[in-house]
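seq:
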Amino acid sequence: MSIERLHVASRYSEAVIHNGVVYLSGQLADDLSGDIRQQTRETLAAIDRLLTEAGSDKTRILSATLYLRDIDADYAGMNAEWDAWVAPGAAPARATVQARLYAPEVRVEIQIVAAQAG
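struct:
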């Protein structure tokens, strides 16, 4: 089976596709100055773009791992955006954890595994 990598950098690829499964690296917002809701919206938009490029979409997400800088402060705001975004009837397996992220202004990072379409 071949392995396809999208947007390859020296340390990681934004997406890796193998055997009909799409693995996304942790995605972040473009603008890290915003609150949790804005950062979550931008992160989900980045996920949408990468999934489309990889031949998938949010209805095909198998699992999601969400990392929050401050779970007490940001869980409700993140969930409000997540709930509005996730496809009805297609909620993936999910874990949400508090983590020390790579920079203090990063409030959320989301990692996705999805099936390719068809």
